C-alpha cells in the first residue's frame, strides 16, 4: 500500500545521509522542519502528518527507531519535544541519536537550558545552529564550542548592523528617499 | 501617497515575534490575515521590511505548510542586500523553498558567485549552504571554480562547508571532478578533525554509490581507520570499507585487525561498536576472528535492557543469518524471547530471524510457537506472523514441508485465528497443494469439510477466499469425501448468502460436482449385480464413499433442489446460471432415480447424461508454471499490446500472486469445456487440455515422460511448453511436488525453474536504471582522476575513455599522486614493521595488493 508512494516522495538516488529533520511537540505541533531533498509542500505536510502520528503514539520504553517507507526514522524525546531525523536503512541509528543529542546540547548551551518556548520564538536561530551542524544532510561540526563561537559571531554581525539601521530616522530616510 | 503608505507599513510592521505571539492566540484567520500583510510588505523597496516579511513567510511555510513559492523572486532580492542579517534570511528562504523548477533560479548565480568570493567567511558559508541544498546542473557547472578555490581556503569554517558542497556539485556536474577531486583527496590527510570528518562523510556517500572507483584510495582510508580517535569519523570509514571489502576480498583480510581492535576496546562507543559489528557481518564474515568476536559482542546487545540495542542486535543478526545461521541459532533463546517484547519493531526483527531459522526439521516446532504468538498479538503483528509462515513454508514449492497433512491442518488453524486477514494467500496455497500434491488430497478434503460445515466462518469476510478454496477442493476431490451428502448440505446452507456472488458460484458448482459424483457411484453400483458389490467396497474401506441407497440419493437430490430453487431468481447471472444448470440436470435425472432399482437397462437417457457429466469433471487439474503463458508464441497478426496495454497495470496486482491460468480462445469454442474453464478460472489454478491435441500430448508424454505427474490425465501446459522448446532440457523442472506417499521421505522437486526467478527479478531492476547517466559520468570522472593511483583494472578501464583523460591538469595531478603514494608507502611500511601480522600479510600478497594498501 503505502510503499508505492515512497518513490514519488524521494528522489531516485541518495546523495546525503539525513533526508530531513523534524521537531514536533508532544501535542503534535511542528516546531522545526528542515528538508535536505526536494519535497513539495504537499509532500512535506503528508510526511509530517504520517510520522508524528506514529511517533507520538509510541510508548516510552520502546526503541527510538521506526521503519518507515523503506527508510529509518530515528527520534528522541527531550522534555516536551520530539527530535526526529530520517536516514537510510544502512545508516547508523546510534550515530544519529548522538547527532540529535549533540544538537540538543548546543541548543541548550546557546539558550541556557533550552525549552520548547525558546524554539518557538527563536525558530530561525534553531535553524542557523542546525546549519552549522549539518550541511546537505551531512554532519559538519563535531565541536560544541566551535558551533557556539560561529553562531555568536554571526549574532554580533547582525546586532551591529541592526543598531545602525533600526532607528526610526533611518527608516524614514530610507522610505522617503 | 504610495510612499507614505509604505512608510506606515514599515513603521508598523509586525515582527516575527508578533506573528508568533498572534499565532499562539488563535490560528485560523490570523494566518490568512498575516499572509495579506506579508504580500504587501514584501513588495516594498525597503529591504528591512522586505526581509522581515520574508522571514515571517518562511516561518509560516515551515511550520504551517503555507505555500511560499510565489515569493521566490523576493527571496532573491533579499539575498542581494549588503547586510548579513538580510542575506541570512534570504538564503534561508531560498534553501527552504527553491526546487529545480523554480523559475528565478538562474538569477542567483551571480549573487552566489559574489558571496562565495566574499571576504566575510559567514557570507561565504551562507552561500555554500545554499548551494549545497539547491545546486542544479547549471549552478554546479558555473560555480565549480569558486568551490575549487574554497576547498583550499585557510579558514576551517569555509573549507569544511566547501567540502560538504562537493557532494552536490559532483552529483550534478560530474566534470567538476577534474577540477576539485585532487583538493578533496588532499583533505583526507588533514590534521583538523572537523575537516577530516567532513571529507570522510563525502567519501562515505560517494563510495556507497560506486565503490569500485574509490578502491585506489584504500590506503588513505586505512590510515584513518587506524589513527582516528573520533567515533563519527571511524563509523564513516567503516562504512567505506564495508563497501570496498565486498568488491575486493583481500581488503577484508587487511582491515580485519583494526576492526577487531576497535571492538575490543574497553569503553568503545556503542555506535562505533555497532558499526564494527555490522561491517563484519556484511563484508568481513569470511574472516573467522572478527566474525566470532562480533557474535560475542552482539550477544551483549541482545542481553542489554536498552531497547535500542536489543533491536539493533536482532537487526544485525538478520544481516549475518543467510551466510552464518549458527550465529542466529546460538542466540535462539534471545530471539524467541524478543517475540514477546512490547516493542513491535523488536518483535518484527525477531520474527524475521525465526523465519530465517526455519528448516524441514524445525518447521513444526517454530510454526507452533508462532501460532501461539499470533493468537495473542494485535491484528497487525498477527497477520505479519501468519504471512511469514505462509511465505517460508511455500518457498520453492513447499521445499521444507515433509508432512502435508500437518501443513494443511496448520492452514486451517490459521483460518480460525480471529484476526487472520491472509485469506487470499491461504486460498492460493490450499488449491496449489491440491493440484500439486496428490497424496495430500484426502487430508485437504477433510480440512475443507471442517471449514465448510462451520457456519460461524461465513460471517468473516477475510475468510471468504479460504472458504472458496475449501468449496472448490470439496467438489474437485469429492471422491475422497466420507460423506458427500454432508458436503452438499454445507455448500448450500442458507448462510452462504453472506458470501460474495463469485464465491457462491463456486459453492454451487462444487455442489454440482458432488451431485454428479454421488449419482455416478449410485448408478454404477446398481449396474452389474447390485448391492453386494457396494457392501463389499464399503466394508473393505478401499473407497472412502459410502454406498448410496435409493433413499439417500433421493434425499440428496431433493436437498440440492430445495437449496437451489430460491437461487434461480438471483440477480447475479453467474449464480443464477449455475443454479439453473443443476436444476435442469436434476430435472432430467430425478424421475429415473426411483425407477432405477427396477430397471436393468444401462443404456437409459439418465445413464448417458450422468456418464457425460462425469466425463466433464473427470479431467484432473494440474499446476501451471507462472510463465506458461509467455511461452505460447504470439499468433501472427495478433495485436495484443495496442489496445490492452492499459489493462496491464490494473491486472498485475490480481494476477501476480497466483498462477496464471492459460486460457486460450480455441478452448472457449468448446461448449462442454466451457463450464470447466470458467471454474478453473475462478479457482485460478489450472487449465484443461485442448482435446484436439490429445494425440500430440500422448506422443509428448512418451518422449518426456519424466516430467509428468504419475496421474493418467496430466498437465497439458507442459505439453505446450515442451513443444515450444522442443528440447526437454530447456523445459523448466516440474513445478509440482511428486510425493509418492507423503508419509515417507519427501521427494521434492528441484529448485524453482529459472524462468520463475526471472519473474521475481524483474521488479527491482526498474529503480536503479532510472537515474544512472550522471552517476556513470561521475564514476568515469573519478576513475580518471585517480588514474595514477589505481593500476591494473582501474587503469584499463580508464583507458577506454581516453579522450576525457588527457588534459594537462590530470596528467600533472596523477604524477603528483604517484609521488604521494611513495611517501605513503614509506610511512605505512614503518607502521607495518611494528605490526608483525601486517607485515606477513603484505609479504605473501600478490603484487597488486601493496599497490592498493601500502
TrEMBL record, chain A:
Biological-process GO terms, alphabetical: cytosolic transport; intracellular protein transport; vesicle-mediated transport
Subcellular location(s) per record: Cytoplasmic vesicle, Clathrin-coated vesicle membrane; Golgi apparatus
InterPro entries xref list: AP1_sigma, AP_complex_ssu, AP_mu_sigma_su, Clathrin_sm-chain_CS, Longin-like_dom_sf
One matching Pfam family: Clat_adaptor_s
Keywords: Cytoplasmic vesicle, Golgi apparatus, Membrane, Protein transport, Transport
Record PANTHER family: ADAPTOR COMPLEXES SMALL SUBUNIT FAMILY
Full protein name: AP complex subunit sigma
Organism of this sequence: Brassica napus
Source lineage: Eukaryota, Viridiplantae, Streptophyta, Embryophyta, Tracheophyta
Gene behind this protein: BnaA07g36290D
UniProtKB/TrEMBL annotation, chain B:
Subcellular compartments: Golgi apparatus
InterPro entries: AP3_complex_dsu (IPR017105), ARM-like (IPR011989), ARM-type_fold (IPR016024), Clathrin/coatomer_adapt-like_N (IPR002553)
Pfam families given in the database record: Adaptin_N
GO cellular component: AP-3 adaptor complex; endosome membrane; Golgi apparatus
Biased composition (Basic and acidic residues): 713-723, 757-779, 791-805, 825-842
Record keywords, A-Z: Golgi apparatus, Protein transport, Transport
Domain Clathrin/coatomer adaptor adaptin-like N-terminal: residue ranges: 28-585
Gene Ontology biological-process entries: Golgi to vacuole transport; protein targeting to vacuole
Residue segments, region Disordered: 707-854
Subunit record text: Adaptor protein complex 3 (AP-3) is a heterotetramer.
Function: Part of the AP-3 complex, an adaptor-related complex which seems to be clathrin-associated. The complex is associated with the Golgi region as well as more peripheral structures. It facilitates the budding of vesicles from the Golgi membrane and may be directly involved in trafficking to the vacuole. It also function in maintaining the identity of lytic vacuoles and in regulating the transition between storage and lytic vacuoles.
Family: Belongs to the adaptor complexes large subunit family.
Name this polypeptide is given: AP-3 complex subunit delta
Lineage: Eukaryota, Viridiplantae, Streptophyta, Embryophyta, Tracheophyta
Amino acid at each position: 500500500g503505502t510503499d508505492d508512494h515512497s518513490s514519488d516522495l524521494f528522489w531516485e538516488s541518495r546523495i546525503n545521509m539525513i533526508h530531513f529533520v523534524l521537531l514536533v511537540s508532544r501535542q503534535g505541533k511542528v516546531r522545526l522542519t528542515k528538508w535536505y531533498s526536494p519535497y513539495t509542500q504537499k509532500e512535506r505536510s503528508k510526511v509530517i502528518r504520517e510520522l508524528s502520528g506514529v511517533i507520538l503514539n509510541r510508548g516510552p520504553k520502546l526503541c527510538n527507531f521506526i521503519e518507515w517507507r523503506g527508510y529509518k526514522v530515528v527520534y528522541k524525546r527531550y522534555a516536551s519535544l520530539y527530535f526526529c531525523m530520517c536516514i537510510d536503512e544502512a545508516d547508523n541509528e546510534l550515530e544519529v541519536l548522538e547527532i540529535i543529542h549533540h544538537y540538543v546540547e548546543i541548543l541548550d548551551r546557546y539558550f541556557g537550558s533550552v525549552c520548547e518556548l525558546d524554539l518557538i520564538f527563536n525558530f530561525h536561530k534553531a535553524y542557523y545552529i542546525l546549519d552549522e551542524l549539518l550541511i546537505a544532510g551531512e554532519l559538519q561540526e563535531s565541536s560544541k564550542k566551535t558551533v557556539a563561537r560561529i553562531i555568536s559571531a554571526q549574532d554580533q554581525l547582525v546586532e551591529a548592523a541592526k543598531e545602525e539601521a533600526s532607528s526610526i530616522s533611518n527608516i524614514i530616510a530610507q522610505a522617503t528617499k | 501617497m504610495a510612499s507614505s503608505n509604505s512608510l506606515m507599513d514599515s513603521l508598523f510592521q509586525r515582527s516575527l515575534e508578533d506573528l508568533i505571539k498572534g499565532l499562539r492566540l488563535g490560528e485560523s484567520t490570523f494566518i490568512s490575515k498575516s499572509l495579506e500583510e506579508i504580500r504587501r510588505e514584501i513588495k516594498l523597496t525597503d529591504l528591512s521590511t522586505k526581509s522581515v516579511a520574508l522571514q515571517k513567510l518562511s516561518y509560516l511555510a515551515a511550520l504551517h505548510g503555507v505555500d511560499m513559492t510565489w515569493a521566490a523572486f523576493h527571496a532573491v532580492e533579499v539575498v542581494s542586500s549588503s547586510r548579513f542579517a538580510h542575506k541570512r534570511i534570504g538564503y534561508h528562504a531560498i534553501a527552504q523553498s527553491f526546487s529545480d523548477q523554480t523559475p528565478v533560479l538562474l538569477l542567483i548565480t551571480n549573487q552566489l558567485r559574489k558571496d562565495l568570493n566574499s571576504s566575510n567567511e559567514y557570507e561565504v558559508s551562507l552561500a555554500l549552504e545554499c548551494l549545497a541544498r539547491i545546486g542544479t546542473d547549471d549552478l554546479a557547472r558555473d560555480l565549480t571554480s569558486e568551490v575549487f578555490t574554497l576547498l583550499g581556503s585557510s579558514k576551517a569554517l569555509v573549507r569544511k562547508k566547501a567540502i560538504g558542497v562537493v557532494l552536490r556539485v559532483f552529483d550534478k556536474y560530474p566534470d567538476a571532478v577534474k577540477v576539485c577531486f585532487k583538493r578533496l583527496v588532499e583533505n583526507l590527510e588533514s590534521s583538523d578533525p572537523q575537516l577530516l570528518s567532513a571529507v570522510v562523510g563525502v567519501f562515505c556517500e560517494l563510495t556507497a554509490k560506486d565503490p569500485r572507483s574509490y578502491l585506489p584510495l584504500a590506503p588513505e582510508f586505512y590510515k584513518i581507520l587506524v589513527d582516528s580517535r573520533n567515533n563519527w569519523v571511524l563509523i564513516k570509514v567503516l562504512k567505506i570499507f564495508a563497501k570496498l571489502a565486498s568488491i575486493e576480498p583481500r581488503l577484508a583480510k587487511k582491515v580485519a585487525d583494526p576492526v577487531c581492535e576497535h571492538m575490543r576496546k574497553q569503553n568503545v562507543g556503542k555506535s562505533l561498536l555497532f558499526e564494527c559489528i555490522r561491517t563484519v557481518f556484511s563484508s568481513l564474515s569470511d574472516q573467522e576472528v572478527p566474525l566470532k568476536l562480533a557474535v560475542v559482542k552482539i550477544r551483549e546487545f541482545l542481553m542489554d535492557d536498552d531497547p535500542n540495542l536489543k533491536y539493533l542486535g536482532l537487526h544485525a543478526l538478520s544481516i549475518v543469518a543467510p551466510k552464518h545461521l549458527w550465529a542466529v541459532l546460538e542466540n535462539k533463546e534471545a530471539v524467541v524471547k524478543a517475540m514477546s517484547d512490547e516493542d513491535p519493531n523488536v518483535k518484527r526483527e525477531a520474527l524475521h530471524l525465526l523465519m530465517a531459522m526455519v528448516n524441514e526439521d524445525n518447521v513444526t516446532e517454530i510454526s507452533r510457537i508462532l501460532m501461539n504468538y499470533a493468537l495473542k498479538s494485535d491484528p497487525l503483528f498477527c497477520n505479519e506472523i501468519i504471512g511469514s509462515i505462509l511465505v517460508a513454508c511455500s518457498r520453492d514449492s513447499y521445499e521444507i514441508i515433509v508432512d502435508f497433512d500437518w501443513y494443511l491442518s496448520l492452514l486451517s488453524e490459521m483460518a480460525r485465528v480471529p484476526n487472520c486477514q491472509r485469506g487470499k494467500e491461504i486460498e492460493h496455497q490450499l488449491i496449489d497443494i491440491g493440484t500439486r500434491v496428490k497424496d495430500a488430497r484426502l487430508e485437504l478434503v477433510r480440512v475443507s469439510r471442517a471449514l465448510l460445515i462451520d457456519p460461524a466462518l461465513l460471517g468473516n469476510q477475510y475468510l471468504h477466499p479460504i472458504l472458496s478454496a475449501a468449496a472448490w477442493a470439496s467438489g474437485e476431490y469429492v471422491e475422497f469425501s466420507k460423506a458427500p451428502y454432508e458436503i452438499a448440505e454445507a455448500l448450500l446452507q442458507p448462510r452462504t448468502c453472506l458470501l460474495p456472488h463469485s464465491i457462491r458460484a463456486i459453492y454451487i458448482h462444487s455442489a454440482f460436482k458432488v451431485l454428479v459424483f454421488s449419482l455416478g457411484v449410485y448408478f454404477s453400483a446398481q449396474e452389474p449385480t447390485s448391492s453386494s458389490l457396494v457392501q463389499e467396497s464399503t466394508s473393505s474401506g478401499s473407497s472412502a464413499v459410502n454406498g448410496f441407497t435409493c433413499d439417500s440419493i433421493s434425499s440428496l437430490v431433493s436437498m440440492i433442489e430445495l437449496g437451489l430453487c430460491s437461487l434461480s431468481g438471483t440477480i447475479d447471472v453467474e449464480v443464477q446460471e449455475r443454479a439453473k444448470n443443476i436444476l435442469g440436470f436434476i430435472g432430467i435425472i430425478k424421475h429415473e432415480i426411483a425407477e432405477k432399482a427396477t430397471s436393468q437397462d444401462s443404456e437409459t437417457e439418465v445413464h448417458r447424461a450422468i456418464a457425460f457429466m462425469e466425463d466433464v469433471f473427470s479431467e484432473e487439474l494440474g499446476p501451471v508454471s507462472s510463465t506458461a503463458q509467455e511461452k505460447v508464441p504470439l499468433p501472427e497478426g495478433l495485436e495484443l499490446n495496442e489496445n490492452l496495454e492499459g489493462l496491464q497495470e490494473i491486472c498485475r496486482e490480481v494476477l501476480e500472486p497466483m498462477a496464471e491460468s492459460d486460457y486460450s480462445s480455441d478452448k472457449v469454442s468448446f461448449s462442454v469445456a466451457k463450464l470447466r474453464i470458467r471454474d478453473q478460472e475462478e479457482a485460478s489454478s489450472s487449465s484443461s487440455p485442448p482435446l484436439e491435441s490429445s494425440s500430440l500430448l500422448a506422443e509428448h508424454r512418451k518422449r518426456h515422460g519424466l516430467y509428468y505427474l504419475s496421474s493418467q490425465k496430466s498437465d497439458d501446459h507442459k505439453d505446450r511448453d515442451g513443444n515450444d522448446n522442443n528440447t526437454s532440457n530447456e523445459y523448466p523442472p516440474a513445478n509440482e511436488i511428486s510425493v509418492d506417499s507423503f508419509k515417507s521421505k519427501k521427494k521434492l522437486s528441484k529448485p524453482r525453474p529459472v524462468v520463475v526467478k526471472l519473474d521475481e527479478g524483474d521488479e527491482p531492476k526498474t529503480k536503479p536504471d532510472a537515474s544512472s547517466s550522471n552517476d556513470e559520468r561521475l564514476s568515469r570522472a573519478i576513475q580518471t582522476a585517480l588514474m595514477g593511483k589505481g593500476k591494473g583494472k582501474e587503469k584499463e578501464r580508464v583507458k577506454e575513455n581516453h579522450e576525457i583523460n588527457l588534459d594537462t591538469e590530470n596528467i600533472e595531478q596523477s604524477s603528483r599522486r604517484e609521488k604521494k603514494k611513495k611517501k605513503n608507502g614509506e610511512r605505512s611500511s614503518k607502521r607495518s614493521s611494528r605490526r608483525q601480522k601486517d607485515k606477513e600479510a603484505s609479504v605473501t600478497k600478490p603484487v597488486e595488493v601493496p599497490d592498493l594498501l601500502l
